[in-house]
Amino acid sequence: VLWMPQDQQAGRIALRGALILAGLTVVIEFPIFFRALFGTKVPRTGMFEGPTVGGPD
Length: 57
What we know:
The chain is mostly helical. It has one domain. The protein contains 1 helix and no strands. The chain is rod-shaped, with a radius of gyration of 19 Å. The model has no long low-confidence stretch (mean pLDDT 73).
């Protein structure tokens, strides 16, 4: 029974790592996907502000 908590902790760490990796992938890929889908200019920093059409670079 000694290995059980360590296995659970390792599983939890692996799950957390996978979630963080998935989150980073979504954050990185979402603007690219959005731009490809709608053809609008999406600022890299203004992901949550919506697309700016004809805005400054």
